[in-house]
Amino acid sequence: MLETNVCNRPDFLSRQRAKLEQDTFLANRAIQMHGKCGRIDRAKRIFDSLTHPNVFSLNIMISAYAQSGHVAQAKALFDSFKFPDTVTWNAMLTALVQEGHYEEAKQFFDRIPNRNQVSWNAMLTAYAQVGNVNELESFFQKLPNPNVVTWTVMVQGYARCGRVDRAKWVFDGMPIKNVVAWTALLSAYTQNWHVEDAKIVFDSMPVRTLVSWNAMLSSYATSGHAFESDNLFQNMPLHDLVSWTCMLQLHCSKGDMDRAVAIFDQIPAFDIISSNVMLTALTTSKDQFQKAMDLFSRMELRDANSWAAILTLYTRSGELSEGMRYFYEKMPEHSVKSWNTLLQANAAAGNLEEVNKLFWKMPLWSLASFCSIIVANSCCGRLDNSREVFTSMPERDLVAWNVMLESYATNGHLELAKNLFDSMPEWDVASWSSLMGAFIHTGNLTGASEIFKDLPQRSAVFWNALLVAFARSGDLEDAKKIFDRSPSRDLAAWNTMAAGFSQFGRGGDALESFHSMLLEGMRADEISVLHALIGCNHLGLVENAGRIFASMAADHRLVPWIEHYSVMAEALGRSCEAGAARELVDSMPYFPDRKTLGGLETSKLNPTVSKLACFLNES
Predict the structure, then answer these.
(1) Residue % of the chain over a pLDDT of 90
(2) Most buried of 153, 379, 482, 486 (most Cβ within 10 A)?
């Protein structure tokens, strides 16, 4: 008798099944890899090529869509699968939460047949991201078995709402505190600009991971503390891309492009995030068009942020029409973010008609799209249009409410701002800031003070906003009282007082404020030194000004701006130090502007300089 067909033999079937499982496993890994790298088209091709995709394939592909912001495709794939498991449900829920589709996420959560702790924590994360304290607390009460992840999400949620006191209260009450929880509290202080509190938490941590080091580094960097950032970076046990990118963002934000480029060149293996940071910095800097285009052409991976940066580059360079051509002809895929970038670029250029055309051309609208068109109409004074768009939104998050509130505030509509604020379902730090700003914008400092008293929590941002308002109005006595009462006087507060004193001719007070700041251990920045120099100039203390100017590099590790040279030249000019003034101007690494040459004119230097100064001043 002939032997049974080899394809029906058990050992053959077993080998084929193992090969098929191995191929699916490798395909799943490839889908995951391309998804993380933003190559969603390649991930999709591999997924479609699978003869027998398993539930892991589905979960990985949904996550890949989510990471690339393709929620609609993730939802379509989910709906096509007959028997999703709990992991699949959670993957889809997480995708909705990550993209800010909170209402849909809530409806989806209610449909999950077998919710586990991951499901509950994902939905809690949604409430935390929205910043709705009441719903966050209400949902937390319903959780069946809160774990350390749950408590950590609560810390993060309170931090997002600006309720650092509640975040600390939750942390203190946690039955178990792991390094993730410690880092969440550290990040809470970082997000709300409590640098000193962040440092206390960092020093108290029993164990620090690289994430903890990066959180502290971020706290220093986002607050502009360059010296502390550099020092911490040097003392870190090791660096990853987050560390390098943090330092890159710091120097990009300070406009120190030479240092930023040097850091970028040192990154062992930069990724798309660090590349985008560098690209964005180049696109927003003057005379960096070609460098930005060169970097863009060298980038092996590009995402929506990369293309958005190039669109920004064209529009900031006055080439909006070329940027739009680039958008329509060269971009491989038009993401919602790229559409929004084009909206914002036309809004900034005052092309309101084009903004409205683009908005109606968009295949999909995000909350950011609605917010962009509200802002565009607001900037052109078309508040009726802004209000119409706002009321027509299918759903509104807290950001949308705040955008409309800020539109009223910046256009001086105090009553409308107050009425909208009272009708809001909830408030966060930005809401209170906009309302207080509405009073300040209309010159109602008494009303701003009343709002300040009603604040649920007074962070340094609010203290400084009120301080700036009184200082700029010339009410320096009340400004000084606010400054003295402020519980955490940061560098911005010291600089505000010094600016007020120098602006209104109180040079002695400006100089005293500068020295008091240094005695309290505060590190001066360029603005601090500038107002100290202006104070010396008012008082005719040219020697004091010279010592302070020289201390910039020697003591404070600061590079003088052209403004420092201008004030110093004027001080020398007033003291008839013609030779010293000319020598200073000749040595500075800037081309003299009107103010600098005005300082030389004061000292009656040679006719050539005087004529040039007069010409620039007249023009």
Answers:
(1) 11
(2) 153
